[in-house]
Amino acid sequence: MTAFARRARASAGRMHPELSLVSYTLLGHLEESGGCRAADLAAHYALDKSTVSRQVAALERTALVERRTDPADHRVQVLHPTQAGRDILAQVTESRRAAFRERLADWPEEDLQRFARYLERYNAEPPRADRNG
Q1: Of 58, 72, 93, 95, which sits with the fewest C-beta atoms within 10 Å of its C-beta?
Q2: What is the C-alpha separation between 101 and 1, in angstroms, rounded?
Q3: What is the rounded end-to-end Cα distance, in angstroms, of the chain?
Q4: Angle at CA 27, nearest 5°, toward 129 and 80?
Q5: Three-class SS of residue 133?
């Protein structure tokens, strides 16, 4: 798992010079959710609001995220990926898929199916308060 996390951090840096793994994760969540408030990001990922604020500021500086007024409550600012942000996410998704295809190209079909089942099982397991990860 440590090696996997190291690779993920390194690939985030190659995607965009100012894009950390946390920033990339937040950007992906904004795209998947259709936008949300910074406080929602902090709550979803159990991050400190100041951490999210710094990451969002970096995403705004690089024009990957923009703030829009919530039509239902004009006091609320909702974060959305810009077209540049969506383009980066699409590029990264394709790069990751290509890397996985290359890395798994020589695996027997049975191993690929077993690996897929394990990943599905791992991702389906809800986090527990008494465990890390």
Answers
A1: 72
A2: 19
A3: 10
A4: 115
A5: coil
